[in-house]
Specification:
- The strands form 2 sheets. Strands 1-2-3-4-7 form a 5-stranded parallel sheet.
- Helix 3 (47-57) packs across helix 4 (83-99) and helix 4 packs parallel to helix 5 (130-145).
- The protein is built from 8 helices and 7 strands, in the order H-E-H-E-H-E-H-E-E-E-H-E-H-H-H.
- It has helices at residues 2-6, 19-24, 47-57, 83-99, 130-145, 156-161, 169-172, 187-201, and strands at residues 11-14, 31-36, 66-74, 107-113, 117-119, 127-128, 151-153.
- The chain has one domain: TIM Barrel (Alpha-Beta Barrel).
- By secondary structure, the protein is of the alpha/beta class.
Length: 204
């Protein structure tokens, strides 16, 4: 935390609730994304377990830790055994946050990656794969009802490594000068816009 402060870094993502780190974050004014680890998703489909989780890791620190998002699961894919646990866990964590009267301080979401896209180029034609669409649609509906964004891990490196014939290194590294034929200077922006386009197609 001192390293963050000395470098004026105002945001942190914790992939699991480390109570030592949470304690150190008290009064720091650093915005926190707190993750629910994938191996805890199934247990949090139980409402009581979700309430206990929120009380222990969120409510207990909420007065002086600046929680921004609770990320329920990370990069779960539709074929994963835990895919069916994501939405119930989201709903239960949201209910527990509301019961603790913390819904105005933070949003509950989940994090995906761009491998859920069936097509990403050109970005305006971005669309989720058929299996991902049926998985993500109810999650997107939940997020829309609660005014929460979908969290996305965008990795230009993997997109480049898997398609070096079509993607230039300078385009992936933000060093390309001038726009490409569809108006993008870098791969990150193109991937991000393809996600936006895909989300619009599932009703976001």
């Amino acid at each position: 935390v001192d390293l963050y402060k000395s470098n004026r870094i105002g945001k942190i993502r914790l992939y699991y609730p480390d109570e030592g780190v949470l304690q150190a974050l008290r009064g720091s004014n650093i915005e926190v994304i707190l993750g629910v680890p994938n191996d805890q998703l199934q247990s949090l489909t139980n409402a009581g377990a979700a309430t206990n989780w929120v009380n222990k890791y969120v409510k207990a620190y909420s007065q002086n830790v600046k929680f921004k998002y609770i990320a329920v699961g990370n990069e779960i894919h539709p074929g994963d055994s835990l895919a069916g646990s994501v939405l119930p866990a989201l709903e239960n964590i949201q209910k527990a946050i509301s019961a603790a009267n913390l819904q105005g301080q933070m949003k509950v979401s989940t994090a995906i990656d761009t491998t859920l896209l069936g097509n990403s180029y050109p970005p305006k034609d971005g669309v989720f794969s058929s299996s991902a669409s049926s998985y993500i649609r109810p999650i997107v509906n939940f997020l829309a009802r609660n005014g929460a964004p979908l969290l996305a891990n965008v990795y230009p490196y993997f997109a480049y490594v898997n398609n070096q014939q079509s993607i230039g290194l300078d385009y992936a590294l933000f060093t390309k000068h001038g726009n490409n034929e569809v108006g993008y200077q870098n791969l990150f922006d193109a991937l991000l816009d393809s996600l936006y386009a895909a989300l619009e197609k599932v009703g976001a």
